[in-house]
Design brief:
The chain has about 290 residues and is of the alpha/beta class. The protein folds into 2 domains: about 240 residues, Alpha-Beta Barrel (TIM Barrel); about 45 residues, no CATH class. Strands 5-4-3-2-1-8-7-6 form an 8-stranded parallel β-sheet. A two-stranded antiparallel sheet has the order 9-10.
Length: about 290
């Protein structure tokens, strides 16, 4: 997953445009981008969109961001969309692995009722949107086989801690939000799932988006969320491994396959060891 595009589920115009924008994954949003009095319409629209994709056999992976578990709205969201088989559920304001397990139990019931395979619906939690969630990130490892990836968010966290802004004068994140980002990256690595970077809210600033993508890829993130179709191209470009990187990774994997007992090898004058092999294998999985 390089690019994950949020689309308000109650906007037929935006849903239609999103299908052809090149995003790896669409996220139908039932939460923040949908007004309280439009929630039911958004649920119907999301279900219809998923049913249409299913009938057209498009293969487009779709997640649905439901409302938070403690909002009183999550059950109705799940009732509407699980029967039409989204690839997964994005869980906002997740506090720890216990919330993933709680959601997993709800999904299991609805999968059974819809005659779907148990475990067929993945979970992608947003793990930094409350102050308490910062202290629960260590608990995602081993929490559920449904866990698809981890991601983080800065907007709700800013409101939770009373920050005047989450960005500095140069457009970068301020220290509290850098901390949340970095802890999420470690939490994803501990859980052995992909880390997905948060959105760049200023969708007109292509230079800022590109900088964030490059920095995220450098640090170990495998993709980034988007809020506008125009952001998808840059995200896909930056997070797609280059031809040279793929060739090097293949050479590393081949070298260790030829010498499975070796601890250290030399390729083109560079010493490589087992951590390099793991990096190469991870890059090739991304390339696929």
């Amino acid at each position: 997953m390089r690019s994950l595009l949020f689309v308000p589920a109650d906007s037929s115009r935006k849903l239609a445009r999103a299908k052809d924008c090149g995003a790896d994954v669409l996220i139908l949003d039932l939460e923040d981008s949908v007004a309280a009095d439009a929630k039911e319409n958004a649920r119907r629209s999301a279900a219809e969109f998923l049913q249409h994709l299913k009938q057209s056999d498009s293969g487009q992976p779709v997640l649905v961001r439901i409302n938070a578990l403690d909002s009183g709205l999550a059950d109705a969201d799940l009732d509407a969309v699980v029967p039409v088989a989204p690839r997964g559920i994005m869980l906002p304001k997740s506090r720890s692995g216990a919330d993933v397990q709680h959601l997993g139990a709800k999904l299991a019931v609805r999968e059974a009722e819809a005659a779907r395979d148990e475990g067929s619906t993945g979970i992608l939690p947003i793990v930094t949107e409350t102050a308490a969630s910062i202290f629960g990130m260590a608990n995602y490892s081993g929490s559920s086989t449904r866990l698809m990836a981890l991601t983080w968010g800065a907007e709700d966290l800013a409101a939770a801690i009373g920050a005047e802004s989450n960005r500095d004068e140069g457009g970068g994140f301020t220290p509290p939000f850098q901390l949340a980002r970095n802890l999420m990256l470690f939490a994803a690595a501990a859980a052995v799932v992909d880390p997905i970077d948060t959105v760049c809210a200023n969708f007109r600033d292509e230079a800022l988006l590109r900088r964030e993508c490059i920095e995220a890829r450098r640090d170990g993130f495998t993709g980034k969320m988007a809020i506008h179709p125009d952001q998808v191209g840059i995200i896909n470009e930056v997070f797609s491994p280059s031809k040279a990187a793929i060739e090097h990774a293949r050479a590393v994997v081949a070298a260790f396959a030829a010498a499975p007992d070796a601890g250290v090898l030399s390729i083109s004058g560079q010493m490589i060891d087992r951590p390099h092999l793991r990096q190469a294998e991870r890059l090739l999985r991304r390339a696929e």
